[in-house]
Batch of 2 targets.
Target 1
Amino acid sequence: MTTALNPRLSFETCVVGAANRLAVTAGRAVAENPGTVYNPLFVYSVSGLGKTHLLMAIGQSAKKLFPNLNIEYLSLDEYVEAFHAAVAAGQGDAFRRRFQNVDVLLIDDVQFLTNRKEMQAELLRLIEALQSGGHQIVLTSDRPPAEIADLDERLISRFSGGLVVDIGVPDYETRVAILRRKSEERGANFQPGVLETVATAEFPNVRELMGALNRMVAYQAVNDTPLNAEGAKQLLGLERAVAPPAAARVAGSADEFGSFLDDVTATVGKAVEAWRARVAEAILRWEGEGYRTHRLEVLLERDTPPAVDAEIAAFARDVERLRTLENEVAALDPQAAGQSLFRDPERMTEAEAAASQVLVGSAPPHGPSAAFPLANYATGAANQVAVTAARAVLEQPGKRYNPLVFIGKSGSGKTHLLHGVGLELAKQPGAVVACLSTQTFIDELITSINGNRVEWWRARYRRATALLLDDIHLVAGKDRTQEELFNLFNLFLDQERQLLFTAPVHPSKLTGMEARLISRLGGGLVAEIMEPDREIRRAMLERLFVTHQLNRDSALLEYLADRPVDSVRGLQGLLQRVIGAAAAQDQSVSVGLARAVLEGHEREPNRKSGALRTSGLVVSSLGGIRSREKMVWDWPAPADRLIEELH
Amino acid sequence: MSLVNFTTREITCKIVYYGPGRSGKTTNLHYIYGRVPEARRGRMVSLATQTDRTLFFDFLPIDLGQISGFSTRFQLYTVPGQVYYNATRRLVLQGADGVVFVGDSQARQLDENVESLQNLQSNLLELGIDVRTLPLVMQYNKQDLPRELILEPAELDDALNFRAVPSLPADALHGRGVFETLKAISELVLKRLSAGTTA
C-alpha cells in the first residue's frame, strides 16, 4: 500500500540553496532525531520544488541511521484509499493499529484533506496517537496549514505545532547547481555557459527546469554539433525571458531593476570563470551551513584553475566526517559538540582527537570557575578552620580530610572557597577536577539516563582526581543520584582522591538523604564558616572598593565594616545600596551618604526561612556566575506592579 | 578599487556619471533609486546646493546579492558638472570601473558637452587611466524636448562620440533610457572580469 522510498531521492542528491536551506536543515534534524525535534514537520511549497524529494530523503536518512525504525511514506490519497479499503473490509481498527505503530510517518500532499471531514478526524486521531508515543510525523502540502480550505481548526493547530517551513523557487545559483548535478547524473556534457544561460530563465519550479535539461540532453543526443548558449535559448524558447529587447520596454512600467539584475547575472555568469563560480557556490553552501571554508577560499586566489571538483569533493567528504563526529559527540556531550573545531575541515585532526576523547568518556567534567580564586578569599577568625582545612587538603589531596565539608549560611563564602580549592587542585599535574553545583550534577545524570549513556557519564567522573560538589543537600530525595554519588564516594575514598562538599548545615541534620551517605559525609572533616567577623568584612570591603573603583575612604570602610551583616553577600549588598544611591543622587560615595542610606530608613526585617537554602550561585561552565537570588534595592511600587499584571 | 575580490568573493563596480552641469546626472540616479527595491539599495547621498545643483557628488550603492557565488555591488556616483568643481570630479573619478557620459541634447549646450568631455579625458589622463580601455557609454539626455531645440542622437554621435562607444538616447526625467544606459555600462564593466582585468 505504501510507496517504497526512492533511493535516488536522498539528502545527498538534494541541491541545497537559499530557497530550501531551512527546509533541508529541518529535515536532516528530524531524520537524525525522529520524534524529538520539530514534530510534526510541515513543509509546503508550490508543486515541483522538491517536497517529495525532501520527504523521501528524511525517510532514507532515518532508515540509514536507525535501521529498526518503522518508516512509512505515502501520499494522502494513498492513505485515504487504504482507509476506505480497510473500512470496507471491516478492518478499520487493524488499519489504525498499523499506523499507530509507525515510527516515522511521511505524508505527502495533505492539502487534499479539503472537504474530507471523516479523513480529517481520522488523521487527527492518528497524529495525536503518534505524537503521544513520541513518533515522528512529516507532512507536505502546497500551502501552509491555515490556507488549506475547510480544514479542522484542531488539525491546523496540530500541523502548526511543530515547525512549518516553506521551499521557495530556487535562485540562479541553485538553478545552475541543479543543472550541473543533473547533467552529471545523466552523463551529459554541455559547452561552457550553456547551463548558466538556461539558469538565467526563471523557471517556476525545478520540474520545469528538469524538463528543459531533458530537452537539451535529447537534442544533443540526436545532433552531431554540441549545443551552445544561443542554441539552448532558441531550443527552449528563452530568447525573450533571458534578454528582453530594450526597445520593447515601456519606461517606468516594467520591472526595470529585475531586468537589469537578470542582465547583470547573465553577464557575470559568463564572465566569472566557471571553476571560480563552482568554488564560490560551494563556499556559499558550506558557509551557509556554518562551516569554515578557508580551504576553498584560497583556491579562488589562484590564477589557474585547480582540480576544482576533486577539491570540492574532498572538502565535502571532510565536512561529512566532521558532521558525523559532531553528531556522535553531541549524543554524549552536547556541550563538547558546540566546539568550533567541528566546523573547520582544516582542523580535522583536532576534531578526531576531541571526538575520540569524548567517546571514551574522557571529556572533562565541569571544572572550577576562574571567578573564585583562592587568593581573593578573605580570611578571618570566622572561617579560620575551613581555610586551614582547605590548605591541608591542598598540601595532601585525598589524604588529610577526605571528605571535607564546608557548612555555613547562604552567602557565607562556601562556594568561593570550594571553587578556590578546586582551582588550586587543578594546578597540580595530571589533575582533573570536577567542581560543580549539585544541581548540575543531578541534571547531567538525568540527561545521561534519558540518552541511555549513564556509563559514559560515570566514566567522566570516575577519571576525575577530585570531586567538589556545591550544595550537596540538593541530593535529598533523589535516590538514583544518591546511589551514583555513593558509588563515586567509595571509589574516591578508596583511591585517596579528594572529595569536597558544601552544605548549609551539618550533614547529620540533613534530611532526605540516605544514612550511608550522611555517615560518609560526616566521616572526614566538617568545617563551619561562621558569620563574617569584622576582620573578614574589612578585607572584603577593601577588595570591593577596588572592584567598584572607589576611593579608599577609610571612614567609609570602617563604617561599613562595623555594620552588622550575617554574610559576605549581605556586605556586598550594603555597599551596592550605597553605590546605587550615590549614582541616583549624583553624589560621590561617602560615609555621610552611607549613613543616610543605611540608617535613614527602617531596616528591612531579616528574611526568615525554615527551608534549607542553596548558595544561590550557579557557576556557569563558561566562567560566568548567575545568582538565583535577586537583590532588588528599588522595589517597584505596588501600583506599578498592578498595572503590569493587568497588562 | 578592485573590481573583483576573490578573497572576499565580492564584485564591486564603481560607475561614475559624468557630464556638463544640468545635463541630468543626478536625475539618472534618482530614477534608478526609485526603481531599486528598498532592501537592495543603500541611502542615496546627495550633497546639493539650495538650487539643487550638485555641490560635491551623489552616491547610490546598490546590492545585487549573490551572483555566481559573488556578492555583487554597484556604486553609482555623479560628479558636479560646474566647471569650478574640477578637483571634486577628479576625486570621484578615482577608481572608477566605468563612466557614463550624460550629455545634454539641447543644441545650445553642445559646447558645454564638448568641454565636459574634454575635461573627462584630461582628468582621466591625470589619474593615469587609459581612456581607450575604460568602459564608457554616452547617454544623450533630454530627448523629450521639442525637436527644434535638440540634436538627434546621430548628430550628437558625430559631434561627441568619436570613440564609437555605445550611445543611448534618454529622457531621464521620465526614465526612458536610464536603465538601458546602466545595463550597457554594466555589461562593458563586467565583461572585463572575463579578461581578468582589475581596475
Target 2
Amino acid sequence: MTERSDEELMLAFKEDEATAFNILYGRYKDALYRYFLRQIKNESICQELFQDLWMKVIYSKSNYQVKATFKTWLYTLAHNRLVDWYRRNNLEQKAFQENTEDEVDGIINWNPEDELQTKRLSKEIKQSVGKLPFSQREVFLLHNDALLTLPQIAEMLGEGLEKIKSRYRYALGRLRKDLEKM
Amino acid sequence: MNNSIENLYKKGSNESSTASLDNLILNAAKQSCEENTSTEGSRKWLYLLSTAAVLVMGISVVFNLQNQNSEMKVSPESLDFSIIKEDLRTKIVTAPPLEPHPRPQKKRKPITPEKVNQAGLLGKIASQKPTIQLEQDSDTPQIENKPQIIFEKNLLEESKVKAIESEETSAGFSQNSDNVMVTGMRRAAKVLPDLNKENNLSPEPIEINKLEQLFKANNFKQAQELLEKLKRKYPSYDFTRYNN
C-alpha cells in the first residue's frame, strides 16, 4: 500500500478520520517540538506553544485547503505562533536583531567515529544554536529540523531567497566560530 | 565544513514531546471527529424540525387569515367610541342605520287573457279543432271506430315560448334569445294549464283520452257522465262529435 501524502492525510482528517491525524502527528511532532525548544529554550513554554499549535491544526481542519504543502502550512502556523509569543513578552527587538558579522572560515577537528567527541560537539552546537539571533536560528532550524529547503523557507516567511541564504550562511559562521573556540 | 556542522546538529537532536502531551493532543483530535459526526446527526434533526415548524406556522397563518376575514364584520355595539372625537361620535350615533342596498326587482305584470290574445297564439290553439281520425283495428273483424285526437305539438310549444317572450318584453326586460327560450319553456309549462282552466278553452288531452277509452269499452253510462262534466267545465268547447 502506497503511503498517503501529508495533504491527503489532512483532507482525510477534515472528513473526520482520526487515524489520519495520528499519522500526521507522528510525522511532524518531533521536528516541531525541537523547533520550539531551540527557539524558546524553556521546556514548559515550548510544550505550551507546541500544544497550542496542534490545537490550532485540529480546530482549523474544516477550513483547510491544499494551497501549499502541509509542511509549509504547519511551519507557517508555528512561526506565527512564535512571533506572537515574542511580541507578547516584549522580546521582539532583542530577538529579531540580526548579527551581520562576517562569515568565519575555520576547520573543526571532528572524527565521526569518536562517539564521545560527537556527543560533546553535538551538545555544544545545540547550545550555540540557542545563542543565534532569532532570524538566523529560525532559518537554521527550519532547514535542519523541519527539513525545509531554503526556497520553501523564503516562501513561508515571505522573504527573498537571497536574504534567507544570507541568514543561513551567517548562522553557520556563528556556529563554526563557537566550535573553534572550544 | 557546513555539512559537518549540520550532521553534528542532527546527531544530537533527539528531543521529543512527552507521551502525556502526545495523548492530550491525539485525544483532542479524536474528540473533534466524534463531535462533528454527532453534530451532523443533530443537524439533520434540526433541519427536519425547522421544516415542520415552518409548515405548521404557514398553515396556522392561513387559518388565522381565514378566521379574521369572517370576524371582520363587527357589530356597532362592540366598537369603542371613546377613542373617537366628540363631533365624529355624534355624527356616527345620529347616522341612520345601514341597510343592505336594495336590489332592483323585476316588476311583472300578471298575465291576462288579453295579453295572451295580443300574442295571438293561444287564440290559435283555442280555435284549433282537434282532428279525429278513425283507425281500423286489424285484430278485430268488426269495424270499430276509434276516435283519436292529435294536437299540433309544434304549434303548442311555439305558443308557450312566445307567450312568455311577450310577457318579458312587456315588462321592460331584454334577454337574449337562449335565456328566453329556456325560462319561457319552464314558465309556460306552469302557466298554460292554469290559463286553460281560467278561460275554459279546451279539455286536457288526458280527459279526452279517458272519454275515448270509456266509449271504446262501451261504458256509455260513465262516458256520458264524464262528457257532461267536461261540457260544464269547458262550455266553449265543441263536444257534439261525442253525442252520437
